[in-house]
Design a protein that fits this description.
DNA polymerase, domain 1, 6 helices, mainly alpha
Length: about 150
Amino acid sequence: MKDPLATFLRHLAVEKNASPHTLRSYRSDLEQFERFRESRGAGPVAAVDVRLVRAWLADLAAVRALDPVSVARKLAALRSWLRFLARRGVIQRNPALDVRGPRLARKLVSFLPIDETAELLKSRGAMLKSRGATPLELPRHSTGGVAHD
């Protein structure tokens, strides 16, 4: 394969119908990995190993201070590219499969504060008068009002 990265991006565009935004992101992420690989003197793509992938992720997180979500996205792009190359026989095995991504923080769901909920329920009467008989409908499952149907 003459240019593995260009071939992969063409595959994403033509066969996977990837959006221009996805293609731009993958190109940027993978070109960044290629520059890192070359700076380490790692040889051709076929020589990529687990240590190089981990070193790149460490560089992204520590040296470049990227957010874990961004590091995870870059790892996903690399895994996808290396999987493509493994399926085409360019590399024997995808070394990125043995690399865990960064831990991502879980975001808690925010709830309407009690005082705002009370105010909303109080204003329901005025709302019904001004808009006819439009009821206030709360999503039943998210409020815990219904355990099951």
